[in-house]
Amino acid sequence: MSDKILICRCEDVTLKEVREAVEKGYDDLESVKRYTGFGTGWCQGKQCVAAAARAIVAFGGQPPAAPITPRPPFHPLPIAHLAALTDEEEAT
Amino acid sequence: MKPLPEEAGCVVVGAGIMGLSVAYNLARLGVERIVVVDRGYLCGGASGRNGGGVRAQWSSETNIRLMKRSIKICDEFATRFGINVWFREAGYLFLARGEERAKQLAQSCALQREHGLPTRILDAADVKKLAPELDTSRVVAASYNPSDGVVFPWPFVWGYARECARLGVEVHTHTAVHAIEETAGKVTGVVTDRGRVRAPQVICAAGAWSPELTRTVGVELPSHPHRHEICSTEPLKPFLKPFVGDLATGLYFSQSMRGEIVGGISNAEVPEGLDQGSSLRFLALYARSLQRAMPRLGAVRILRQWSGCYDITPDGNPLVGPVDEMEGLVLTSGFMGHGFMMAPIMGELLARYLLHGEERELFERWNLRRYREGNLLSETMILG
Hints:
The complex is a heterodimer.
Chain A: E1 6-8, E2 13-14, H1 15-23, H2 29-36, H3 49-58, E3 77-78, H4 79-83
Antiparallel strand pairs in A: 1-2
Helix pairs in contact in A: 1-2
Chain B: E1 10-13, H1 17-28, E2 34-37, E3 53-54, H2 61-81, E4 92-96, H3 99-114, E5 120-122, H4 124-130, E6 141-145, E7 149-150, H5 154-166, E8 170-172, E9 177-183, E10 186-192, E11 195-198, E12 202-204, H6 210-215, E13 224-233, E14 243-246, E15 251-255, E16 261-264, H7 280-293, E17 301-312, E18 319-322, E19 329-333, H8 339-356, H9 360-365, H10 369-373
């Protein structure tokens, strides 16, 4: 199999890197996420988490009971839009 | 899963950077049969959730001295442990927007210089040169130490874990400690969800979970957990050199080696307790202050937010060393959200103290007994 197969397109994580993580003992979904960085880019795992989970199981890792913890915001949001949500005074 | 041993020479509770650094250093000094247990996975707690700042700019002599040594360990970590920690000598820039704060920074700066740090006080024009994108119109002064740095936290945990394994330390993740056990005021081991481990020594490196852990053996700690949130933007071309901090709002941000702006801010309305959830209020407070500090970031998008728990002590100083009323119980907790950067040197010093009695004065000062005796300490440069 090609070493260039991408599991996570946002962070360029390859299938080979997922296999190496599992072989090193980082064999559950959250640990593989941290060790390879899959799911931490633009889509926050929406595109890759299922493929990564399948790969982990195929390489002998632990079958995940749940997806990686979803992190807000649901979609990337500009700082200016978020800043407009508060009118509290800033501490000085 | 490897079976849990029934007996150990020493059980370390918490496989964050603190517990692993202590275990690694004890093992290097020849201690055998060390077992590290953790309820979750590596990097699952505060060690995997912090902003990766490492600085020697503090207001107390002790923190300055220890962090100078910790930064040196961070700098050499990649070579020594064979893992890339993405260490960047970014420098920490503390902004003051009022005279009172400027005076405080000047005092700390003088103390830091006495201890050989290259910290200097900058005026608004100097700040502008260092970080042109900052709005300096409200900046009265700033202190800057070019030798402070930023790291990627996760590889430190893996590096220590790997060296621990090489030295024969057993690291058991997904193993929750239900209680510490004792007989007649002496620790006898721990009970976990995977069985019991007998040991004459238990080291509590459980971060924000420490108070509930020691309570199982009747030891009340004065510290409490407090949720601190943090977030990350989309990656940008490298442009921001220093790690920027504002002690008035608790705002801090830096650019990671991945290009993301990573930062957080104080949120006093968060009730104390173990909580790793996220709030929209935090995002709003942070975005508002960040945009004021650096208006051009308004167009940059936040990709994700998460949180971790600080282990807060009433006097801002940690709880380290043996517990008088429970023989065999040793603490290394209460690091106020700065345990990550302190852990490389704390692990080394605590191991040397426990085995050889070195640095006695430091460990007497940071002992839990100061709360029984009323000798509280101070530190004004807590961030976040």
